[in-house]
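Researcher: We're teaching a course module on how sequence relates to structure. For the next exercise, students receive a sequence and then see the predicted structure as tokens, so they can try to spot secondary structure elements on their own. Here is the exercise chain.
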Amino acid sequence: MRKLIGLGVSSLILALLYASLDADGLQRAMRAADGSWLLAGILFVVPLTLLTAWRFMLLVENRISFLEANRLILAASTLNLFLPSKLGDLAKGHVLSKRHSMDTGLAYATVILEKTLDMMSLLVWGCGGLVVVGIGRPAMLLFLVPVAGLCAVLMLIILPLRILPIMLVTFGQIMPGKVSRILEKSSASWQLISETFWQRPSHAIAVIGLSILIWGAHLFQFWLFSQALHGNVPILQNAAFATLAILVGLLPFTFAGVGTRDAAIIFFYAPYLTAESAALLGILATLRYVLPAIAGAPFVGDFIGLVRPSDKKRST
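Model: And here is the predicted structure for the students to work with:
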């Protein structure tokens, strides 16, 4: 029901957006798109997926193969289209626990650490981009306050400072018994993954650096698409605009960010793209999520344990 409501909200926002656009201008923007840049942007999904799978393999200390990591990343992308709040990513914890004999709490904490690294890395690029944009457009610096603030909080959580475990335990003390026990277990799991992650500081720093590289590549994909639409957006300005658009797309009342992310792209890219071209950029931004989801569809059954190895052998 939540997804159906989100789909309805997304449809309404898109209908209002496209009603305000010039249909002829939209067709001209489509015909004028540079095919080479467009193809480069689409194919960039491949190295992004491979890098993300490699990072996940490093996070679980090579308990899984590179091929298995790719299957998990792609299948999670498929589930994220249909499950609320990126719960498809949490399903990777189920697989790590059931198929790879990883402690359940540690498995889920690993996935949460992965998503924390993702958000922190995105915000690092957003902060840098907003500082550059703010030189010419001081009003944009207003966005720097929440972006930098959240980035700092996530950095503190990732560092081995026991901040999150203490917060969870403290909050659990004022919650009912069942919730308190869940928070206590979550605190212990996060403390365990933090100790495991920072057991080798050089390895942890390398994973953080790889995460920042991955999200730089995500934002670079936005830049490739903007080049296909003749936007000529400077790379760091693009980092700011794309970061803000992605954050707006994470608001929970739409379907996979569709509609809100499109509106944000039209607003933030206005100095470099016409509304019609920016609308096409919004479609391409959504394609970034759809393509991995399509590629991951064949792995979903096995991913969530619906297909047992014995079943696969009988089917072959």
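Model: If you want an answer key for the exercise: Confidence is low (pLDDT under 50) at residues 306-316. The first helix runs from residue 2 to 19.
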